[in-house]
Design goal:
Mean pLDDT: 77
Distance between the termini: 111 Å
Structural class: mainly alpha
Strand content: under 5%
Number of strands: 4
Shape: globular
Strand order of the largest sheet: 1-2
């Protein structure tokens, strides 16, 4: 019997053994193939999110992205929807124009346990007046007549109010609702930025046809008095009123604060 077939069979067996041994490790790394696979999975799981996305990869600037961002904030212990920085508006204008409002039905009211209305912080996150700072208080909100000087006319705000009511799906009488500056003019809120204005429904106990009954106005007056007396900072008061106007005074330790003196040139709630 020829020895050639036996030699060929032996050579093939050796080659197969060498090939299997070569696949068992990552050359020069000391890791097995399973270790390498695990490392790749770990690396892909810790990759930074793409620009314009949330940490989960959801595109930002969308409803899904907003929801993902809110969930991430809640997981970090941050109140849902509360902005880290309140946006700055354009400030007072020599001539105001009617501002575009959110699309109809895209905003939703929130309510406290006592049924007091709060705005949708996506539609109405507040907006500050860049002319009002801690350094300019004496010449702005702490000066009599300042809010009257910068207030838009009802010819402008009346049309905005009607459109904003549709944004929030408000069906009640507009005469009983206030077109409210979330950060009031007397607290350094922007006069006509749509992010700072919302149709505020009547508070509990309101009688139909009686006009707005807005306890938020009294809170704003007390906060202004505290700011002008140096009892709290402007920025802290603004953040407190945006978060929840019903808890703003207690959050700043101002539960016993008296209202500011009535400015004869200002409207109620400015």
């Amino acid at each position: 019997m020829s020895t050639t077939p036996r030699l060929a069979l032996a050579t093939a067996t050796v080659l197969i053994a060498v090939g299997v041994a070569g696949c068992s490790s990552d050359s020069g790394s000391g890791k097995t193939s399973s270790d390498s696979s695990a490392g790749n999975k770990a690396a892909s799981g810790s990759a930074a999110p793409l620009p314009g996305t949330t940490p989960s990869g959801t595109p930002s600037g969308t409803a899904a992205g907003a929801a993902a961002g809110a969930a991430a904030g809640a997981a970090a212990g941050k109140p849902s929807g509360t902005p880290d920085v309140i946006p700055a508006g354009p400030g007072p204008q020599g001539s105001y124009t009617v501002q575009k409002q959110p699309a109809p039905g895209t905003c939703s009211y929130r309510y406290t346990a006592a049924k007091e209305p709060l705005p949708d912080l996506t539609c109405t996150p507040g907006a500050t007046n860049p002319k009002v700072t801690q350094a300019t208080l004496k010449t702005t909100i702490c000066r009599s007549g300042y809010t009257a000087d910068i207030r838009p006319s009802t010819n402008i705000t009346g049309r905005e109010k009607t459109a904003n009511a549709a944004s929030y799906g408000y069906k009640g009488s507009l005469k009983d609702a206030e077109y409210d500056h979330l950060i009031s003019l007397q607290l350094g809120g922007d006069p006509n930025d749509p992010r700072n204005l919302w149709v505020q429904p009547p508070s509990p106990g309101h009688k139909d046809g009686a006009g707005p009954n807005n306890p938020k106005d009294a809170v704003e007056s007390k906060l202004k008095a505290a700011i002008c007396a140096g009892k709290t900072d402007l920025a802290k008061a603004q953040k407190a009123i945006v978060k929840d106007w019903t808890t703003a005074l207690s959050a700043l330790g101002l539960k016993d604060q008296k209202p500011a003196e009535k400015d004869p040139k200002a409207e109620e709630g400015e």
